[in-house]
Design the sequence.
């Protein structure tokens, strides 16, 4: 295991209930959220684990030029939340660092990956705090932390139940905004209104 390589888990298997359609295939500037984010992660990560709940071929067609780094894994318990997805892919991670991204944040700033890697040191993860709220996604973990996710998932579906078991370094807006000026990496597009607002500012 090379000491500085990074895997990425991209969570793309949600039900998108509030949006009413699969957020992975919403478009911004002519490209799907899925392709926009994978393109960013491809430049920074050594492997991408795509967590899905639909037929693999749907995603392969969209991501044809990135397939050399992508592994598709279906959740063990479909539509059971992000902790289920993390636990489902944990055994497939081949590198010591793991960036966990989500498909509903197309404005993700990939430079955060390098920034968090510089900061993580002996911690299990970086825990961004934006507007007073902890952000367990679009951040960096150590591979060993995912073993704890598997254990926690046996009794809880909550990501924060897992985070509470980890030694996390909290980073706040003042530090994160030096890399991601508008903190758009933590703007999740969950509703039609948010999607329209996103398209209006781009």
Sequence:
């Amino acid at each position: 295991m090379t000491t500085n390589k990074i895997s990425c888990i991209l969570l793309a298997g949600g039900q998108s209930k509030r949006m009413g359609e699969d957020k992975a295939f919403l478009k911004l500037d002519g490209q799907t959220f899925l392709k926009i984010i994978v393109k960013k992660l491809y430049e920074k990560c050594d492997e991408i684990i795509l967590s899905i709940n639909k037929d693999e071929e749907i995603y392969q067609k969209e991501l044809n030029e990135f397939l050399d780094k992508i592994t598709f894994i279906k959740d063990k318990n479909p539509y059971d939340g992000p902790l289920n997805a993390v636990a489902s892919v944990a055994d497939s991670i081949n590198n010591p660092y793991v960036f966990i991204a989500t498909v509903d944040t197309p404005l993700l700033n990939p430079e955060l990956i390098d920034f968090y890697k510089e900061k993580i040191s002996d911690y299990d993860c970086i825990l961004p705090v934006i507007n007073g709220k902890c952000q367990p996604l679009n951040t960096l973990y150590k591979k060993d932390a995912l073993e704890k996710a598997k254990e926690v998932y046996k009794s809880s579906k909550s990501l924060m139940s897992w985070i509470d078991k980890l030694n996390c370094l909290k980073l706040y807006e003042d530090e994160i905004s030096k890399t991601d000026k508008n903190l758009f990496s933590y703007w999740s597009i969950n509703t039609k209104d948010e999607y329209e607002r996103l398209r209006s500012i781009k």
